[in-house]
Amino acid sequence: MLEEERADWQAIGQAGAAAMRGGSQSGAREFFEKFFTPYLIERPSEGALVTGYFEPELSGALKPDDQHNVPVYALPDDLVMLDAQTDRASLPDDLTAARKGLNGLVPYYTRQEIEQGVISGRGLEIAWLADLHDAYVMQVQGSGLLNLPDGEQVRVGFTGKNGHPYTSVGKILIERGMLSAENATLDKVLEWLRANPAEGRSVMWRNRSYPFFRIIDSDEAANGPIGSMGAPLSKGRSLAVDPRFHRLGLPIWVSAPELQDGRDQHFQRLMIAQDSGSAIRGPVRGDIFWGSGSEAGRKAGATKHICDFTVLIPN
Fold first, then answer.
1. What does the pLDDT read at residue 187?
2. Are residues 71 and 132 located together in one domain of the fold?
3. Whether pLDDT at 88 is above 80
C-alpha cells in the first residue's frame, strides 16, 4: 500500500472511531456518507450468492489419546507458495503451492496422501480431534474452538493449504444424485458421510485441497477467530469475499431478500470484507460469518441466497 493511501486510510479510521464513540446512528451514517461513495455491482448471470460459515466448537486434545486420534497439522516447511514469478515448469496451472522435490518443485501431497499418513511423524501435529468429519468441517470453515480434556479451550486458525484446488463435497453428492441441490446443507452432507463411511471417505478425497492450522495465542484469540485480513471476525458483520475483486477491509452493503434477518425482515446489512475462502469466487459472492458453536453452524448451513453487493469505495 502506498504511503499516501495508507495516510488516507488512517484518517478515515480516526474519523470512523470518533463517529463510533459518539454512539449515534446519525453519526455513523454521516461518517459513511462523507468518506465513501456507494457502487452497486451489477449482478452476473449466475453466481450472485451469499452463504454462511462459522467456527465449530469441537472436542480436542494437544496430545493423542484414546478419544482423540485425528491430527491437526501445522504448515509444513517443505511447502512452497507459488506466484506469477515462480518457475512452474510442468506444474498444473491451478496449483497455488508445491513441494520441494529432489529435481525441483512437484505438486504437494493430496488430501488422501496426507490422511494416509505421508507427513505424520514430522512434528507437525499441533492438536488432535475425536472425529474425522469434525476435522473436515473445521477445515472447510477455516477455524475451530477446541475443548480440551482439562476444561481449557484453544483456538486454531487457518495458516495455509497444500495448493490443490478446492472441490465441494456437497457438489459431488448432488452430481451423484445422493442429495438434491435444495437439501445439500452442511448437516445433510455430514449425515450422508457418516452413514456411508467408506464411500464417504473416497468422496472426501475427491477434494484434494488440505488446509493447515496454527494455535492462536490467547491474547490474539480473545476476540474471536482470525480472518484473512488478520483481524478478529465479528458475528454477522464479517464477510468473506473474493480478493480478486474486493480489497479486504472495504465496507460492503449486502442485500439478500430471501434471507430472513429477524422480525420477518429480509437481510440488508453493512458488512466488512475481512476474510476469503477457496469456494468464494466472483464479484457478487460472499460468505457471512455467523459466529461460533452449533447454533451458528445451523444458521450458516441454512444460508444460501441470491444477493446484491453495494461496495463503499473511499472518496
1. 87
2. yes
3. no
Q: How many CB atoms lie within 10 A of CB 24?
A: 10
Over residues 16-50, the pLDDT tens digits come to 777 666 666 677 788 888 889 999 999 998 889 99
Asked if residue 287 is part of any domain, the answer here is yes
User: Residues 238-252: what's their mean pLDDT?
Assistant: 94
Using alpha carbons, list the distances in angstroms from residue 67 to 59, 151, 162, 222.
Answer: 9, 15, 27, 27
Closest CA to 119 of 154, 83, 73: 73
Residues 202 and 230 placed together within one structural domain of the fold: no
285: confidence class by pLDDT, cuts 50, 70, 90: very high
In sequence order, the 6+-apart residues with CB closer than 8 A to the CB of 212 are 73, 74, 75, 76, 79, 124, 158, 159, 160, 161, 162
Residue with cell 457438489: 171
| Total domains present in the chain | 2
Question: Does 118 share its domain with 132?
Answer: yes
Arithmetic mean of pLDDT, 129-141: 94
Is 207 exposed, middle or buried (CB count within 10 Å of its CB: 0-12, 13-18, 19+)? buried
Domain stop point among 221, 245, 270: 221
Q: What is the mean pLDDT of residues 117-127?
A: 96
